[in-house]
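Exam review. A common question shows you a sequence with its structure tokens and asks you to describe the fold in words. Practice with the pair below. Do the first one on your own.
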Amino acid sequence: MGIRDEEIKRLIHYAKGLGVKVIIYNKINKDNDAEWTTDGSLIQLYCNSKTSKIDTILSLVHELGHHTWFIHEKDRQPDLKFDEAIVRQNLFETDDVKNPVPKHLRKKILAVEIAGTGWWESIYKDTNLKIPKWKLHAAMEFDIWMYEIYCESGHFPKGVVKKNKHKEIQNKWRKS
């Protein structure tokens, strides 16, 4: 077993210790790389043969950031506005609803995303990850940027804009 496999295994055990189950699925046309259930019971990862182990690690850290926030800042109590925002977002993305999520709910999603990233470094240290720390910081910045765009426009960036921003952030953190 390689170092990345061991890190994934440690992250899964860490999740189990926090009371959340992790399931890894083969990716089947899923827009998300991972999901955390807002009741704190499950993290679902969607991977395929092209998903790198580092991407899997970063997805796990991302979702564990949400869960750690849920434990330490919300005392495992549901955030009803966040739940409503996620339900509305999921309906909008599946075209069941033609109107975008209202801006006040998009702001709530952004706030929860930012709060979750605040726990990433702690998870990195607690699980003794060896991935380069710049990759963690680049993923944090890119994640927040994506949700800032979503908050302002109601849509996530796609295509060339997303690709160029990802490259820009990767280059910035790689050099630091």
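Now try the second one, then compare your answer with the model answer below.
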Amino acid sequence: MPPLILVNEHPRLVIEQALMEAPELNIAAAFVGDPLGISNFGGGGRGGLDGIGDGFRGGIGPGDGPKLGGRAAAPRERVTRNPEVIHKEEPEYSDEARQARYQGVVVLMIDIGLDGRPSNIRIVRGAGLGLDERAVDAVRKWRFRPALAGDRPVVAPAMVELGFHLL
């Protein structure tokens, strides 16, 4: 019998996520923006302190704008102590994933508030079959010791990875 060559009609490229948490950026520059603009604060447009337009009253483009621009956001404070988990609940397996004998990992990005409660929960990498929703529900019940900047609590981002494995 001659050798059989299989051709995959719909190949998939597996891409592993390389960055598991956001890098901390500290730019030690007095001003960042258009080098031809006004470099004291604001959007830096040539015509005013707000927006990126050449005209007055901010805006975008060459004419006077309706003040669409704005001041730059204040930089985040340097975190001196990262948040710590003080209460954790394991997520439940979904019935559909259990029936399919499916295992996977759900990666979530969360913000940990001043009160230690997670908020702004986002799915970075889902597993499907109801496991994503179970992971989000479980993390909502978690409690953290908030991050500190110096001696005061600050809001901090965190990445959470939850594995679903059958025994």
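Model answer, second protein: Residues 51 and 69 are 3 Å apart (CA to CA). DSSP finds two helices and seven strands in the chain. Full marks require stating both points clearly.
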